[in-house]
Amino acid sequence: MAPWSSDVAFRSCSIGARSRLLGSEPDRERPHPHVAEPGVHRYPKSQKLAVGNGTHDAPAEAPAAMDLLRCCAFFGAGPIPLESLERGRYFPESALHTTLLDPILRSRAIGALGRTALVRVNPVSRTIQIHRLVQGVVRDGMSEADAERSRHDVHLLLAAADPGDPDDFDNWPRYEELRGHMDPSDAEGCRHVTVRRLVLNMVRYLRVVGEPVAAQTLADRALDRWPTTDSGDAEALAMNLAINRSKVDALVALGEYEEAFALSRSSLEARSGDENPDTVILGRSTGVELRWKGDFAKALEADEASVDAHTRIFGRDHPQTFMATNNLAVDHALNGRYGKAVQEDEKVYRDCLTFYGRNDHPAVLVYQNAMARSMRHAGHYREALESAGQVYEGYRSLIRRRILREDHPWVLVHGNDLAAARRDAGGTNALSLASDVHNRCWRILGVDHPQTLATAMTLGSILRGAGRYSDALDVLTDAVRRYESKLGADHPYTHACGASLAATRRQDGAPAAATGLIESALTGLRGALGDDHHFTLIAMITHAGALADLGDPQAALDVGREALDGLRRTLGPDHPHTLACAGNLSLVLSDLGGEEEAATLRADTLVRYQRSLGEQHPAVSLFLQRRRLDVDFSPVPI
Question: pTM (2 decimals)?
Answer without folding.
Answer: 0.86
